[in-house]
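dumping this here so i dont lose it
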C-alpha cells in the first residue's frame, strides 16, 4: 500500500469530481451512474478494498452498486456505520472499525471506513461507503470531496 500525500489526495479527488460529472452528464439511469461512480472511486482512491452505495428503502439501506468483496445486503437505520450515518444525516469517519460500537463486519479485511450520506430535501437517499484495510485511512480531505460527490449524486443521479 502506498503512502498518499495531502496534495496528491486533493489532486486525485479533483479529478474524480470532474470525471464523475462527465460520466453522469448524459446518462439518466441511476444504476448505471452509481455503477460507474463506484468503479471510479475504487480505481482512484488509494488503499481501499470496498467502494459503493447503499440506497434508502423505508427504514433500511439496501446494497447498491459497488466494487469490492461481497457485502451486507440490508442495514437498518441506526445500525453499523452506514445506518448511523443515515440516522444522524452526517459523515462518519471511523479510524478503527473494530472500536466502533455496533460495527457490522461485512469483511474481516476492513479496518477503517468513511460513510457519507446522500441527502436531498432533508431526506437521506442513501450513503457512500468506502472501506480500507489500513487503519486511519480517511481524513477531512476525503470528507470534503466525498460530500461534494454526494451533493452531485443527490442533485443529478437520484
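and the seq i came up w/
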Amino acid at each position: 500500500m502506498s503512502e498518499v500525500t495531502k496534495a496528491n489526495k486533493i489532486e486525485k479527488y479533483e479529478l474524480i469530481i470532474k470525471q464523475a460529472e462527465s460520466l453522469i452528464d448524459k446518462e439518466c439511469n441511476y444504476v448505471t451512474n452509481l455503477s460507474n461512480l463506484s468503479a471510479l472511486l475504487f480505481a482512484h482512491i488509494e488503499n481501499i478494498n470496498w467502494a459503493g452505495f447503499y440506497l434508502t428503502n423505508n427504514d433500511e439501506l439496501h446494497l447498491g452498486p459497488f466494487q469490492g468483496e461481497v457485502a451486507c445486503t440490508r442495514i437498518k437505520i441506526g445500525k453499523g456505520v452506514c445506518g448511523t450515518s443515515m440516522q444522524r444525516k452526517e459523515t462518519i469517519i471511523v479510524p478503527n472499525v473494530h472500536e466502533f460500537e455496533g460495527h457490522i463486519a461485512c469483511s474481516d479485511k476492513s479496518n477503517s471506513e468513511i460513510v457519507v450520506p446522500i441527502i436531498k430535501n432533508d431526506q437521506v437517499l442513501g450513503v457512500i461507503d468506502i472501506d480500507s484495510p489500513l487503519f486511519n485511512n480517511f481524513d477531512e480531505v476525503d470528507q470534503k470531496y466525498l460530500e461534494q460527490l454526494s451533493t452531485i449524486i443527490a442533485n443529478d443521479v437520484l
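The mean pLDDT is 93.
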